[in-house]
Design goal:
This protein is of the alpha+beta class. It is built from 16 helices and 13 strands. The strands form 4 sheets. The chain has a 5-stranded mixed beta barrel. A two-stranded antiparallel ribbon has the order 1-2. The chain has a two-stranded antiparallel ribbon with strand order 8-9. Helix 13 packs antiparallel against helix 14. The longest helix is centred in the middle third of the chain and has 37 residues. The radius of gyration is 23 Å and the shape is globular.
């Protein structure tokens, strides 16, 4: 008997024909057997373990060993530790020449914010070493193939998203770099990470973000703890990843690449995680969508199934439009990144396009995920608000996606900078030429952004993202995607109500094709 999730024990890849159609468009040739096997793992083990961790066994901080020495180690549930090793292979594809779309497709299917965060910050360290510090190849292999975990620590209490406000000082002492004064206040992976990449300002470097360098920070040096963890934080969700406060007091670190290019390496890593955020947001939303699809088939009210009520069908169509629009947008951005990710500064037009799309995808998918999970709870009624049922958790998990890796204001400002300084809108408009309506709305949003500046930036991000989503949906030739693209444009670009003519099962029910 299924007591928490209707999708427990199901193959989550097989339940998602819309994902398959989108992947066939933006990442053709992905290994179907591998995706299907991962979908089974998610339904059979990930759901159970992740819910157990969330409800009963979040990581705890052990600060001392039996002899009183500081160890600041995260204690994981044995079930979580075992599951993480089963999941670790999903971080390898890009480094083995298999591309980024496979990794992000697996991240979408995993769709647990805490577990996926642990894996994302681990391969982000591998990413920096792979591109800019090949002398640390052994560390990269530890991260990709075990047993090490990684982390990315940039944010400090006084600055938040303002990286230029970082106070951590890097000082050269006897041929080695040491970090002082650092208080990495929102440190995901604290107590778990064996290696972290951290931002710090070399002594004498200019103020602001361009004065930051990127460093590799090992957990231990000659058997001694190299930094301390002040505490873990209590969070609304994403409890599987330990989040804490890390203090750097003379911590030994290794410079990655060129000090003067550190901000570029940091922004590259943020692009990697923003795309992960987009994939995870839509994956989390899909988990709630799946529960709703099961529920409306099983629940009766006023003499008939919920699925047969007009207003429920309208809700289901709204859910599907947000789901396919956000997912197609995410994988359009992932496709662009996959084509340009090996570039180094200074970057080409293709890389600037990928960066622009990452901002659009990150910002809009987070909004879609929050809306989808909220509506799915509503379709469950009162049960949807109870923690003993799983759908409530998906809404809690979705609420971090607008905040992680820079909230919507930061995405909008970074998008505006990419447009003003890198002319990233030019290849973007070229991309949209195949979709006249999307192109017209994008041009209108860009004109208004030029006139109104930052005041309009967040609305511009949403409008440009929706234009990109319409374009992406139009590229999926499989029925009913062309009509879904028109309906998405009507709802989100034109702001018009969905027409009664859209009340057809093949539009509001993604399982219609499976029946």
């Amino acid at each position: 008997m299924k007591s928490r999730f209707y999708s427990q024990g199901e193959n989550h890849y097989a339940l998602d024909p819309d994902l398959k159609a989108i992947l066939d468009t933006f990442a053709p040739g992905l290994p179907q057997e591998e995706l299907s096997a991962f979908g089974r793992l998610v339904g059979e083990e990930v759901l159970e373990v992740a819910h157990h961790v969330d409800q009963d066994a979040p990581p705890r901080l052990q600060m001392h060993d039996l002899d009183g020495n500081r160890i600041d180690r995260a204690l994981l549930s044995p079930a979580q530790a075992t599951l993480l090793e089963k999941l670790r292979p999903m971080i390898r594809p890009a480094y083995e020449g298999r591309g980024w779309p496979l990794h992000y497709a697996l991240g979408y299917l995993l769709a647990d914010g805490g577990l996926y965060c642990i894996l994302t910050i681990t391969h982000q360290v591998a990413y920096a070493l792979h591109k800019y510090a090949p002398e640390h190849e052994a560390v990269k292999r530890e991260l990709l193939y075990g047993p090490a975990f990684g982390a990315t620590w940039m944010t400090e209490i006084q600055g938040g998203s303002d990286l230029g406000a970082n106070r951590t000082l890097a000082r050269k002492e006897g041929g080695a770099w040491r970090l002082y004064g650092g208080d990495k206040y929102f440190a995901s992976g604290a107590g778990l990470a064996d290696y972290a990449i951290v931002t710090a300002r070399p002594e004498g470097a200019p103020p602001g973000p361009k004065g930051l360098a990127l460093f590799l920070l090992p957990r231990e040096v000659e058997g001694r703890l190299n930094f301390t963890v002040r505490r873990f934080k209590e969070k609304l969700a994403t409890r599987a990843v330990p989040s804490g406060e890390v203090e750097l007091k003379g911590s030994l670190a290794h410079l990655i690449g060129k000090a003067e290019e550190g901000i570029y390496y940091t922004l590259e890593n943020l692009t990697v995680s923003r795309l992960a955020n987009a994939a995870a947001a839509m994956g989390i939303a899909k988990k709630a969508h799946l529960e709703a699809l099961f529920r409306v088939r099983r629940r009766t009210a006023f003499g008939k199934r919920l699925l047969d009520h007009d207003l429920v069908q309208h809700d289901l169509l709204t859910l599907r439009l947000r789901q396919v629009g956000g997912t197609a947008l995410a994988f359009l951005a992932i496709q662009a990144f996959d084509r340009a990710w090996e570039e180094r500064p200074p970057y080409s037009e293709a890389y600037h396009l990928a960066r622009l799309l990452s901002h659009l995808a990150k910002g809009r998918t987070a909004e879609h995920a929050s809306a989808i999970t909220q509506l799915a709870m509503e379709l469950f009624g009162g049960l949807g608000f109870l923690e003993e049922y799983g759908v409530a958790r998906w809404h809690r998990e979705a609420l971090i996606t607008p905040i992680w890796e820079g909230p919507a204001n930061i995405q909008a400002l970074d998008m505006a900078e990419a447009i003003a300084k890198k002319r990233a809108h030019e290849p973007f408009l070229e991309l949209l030429k195949a979709s006249p309506e999307a192109l017209a709305h994008a041009e209108k949003a860009l004109r208004r952004l030029a006139e109104e500046g930052p005041w309009y930036a967040k609305e511009a991000l949403r409008n440009l993202a929706d234009a990109a989503a319409v374009h992406a949906l139009e590229q999926v030739g499989e029925d009913p995607f062309p009509e879904l693209a028109r309906l998405y444009a009507r709802a989100f670009l034109e702001g018009e109500a969905l027409p009664p003519s859209a009340r057809r099962p093949e539009l509001y029910d993604p399982w219609w094709s499976l029946s």
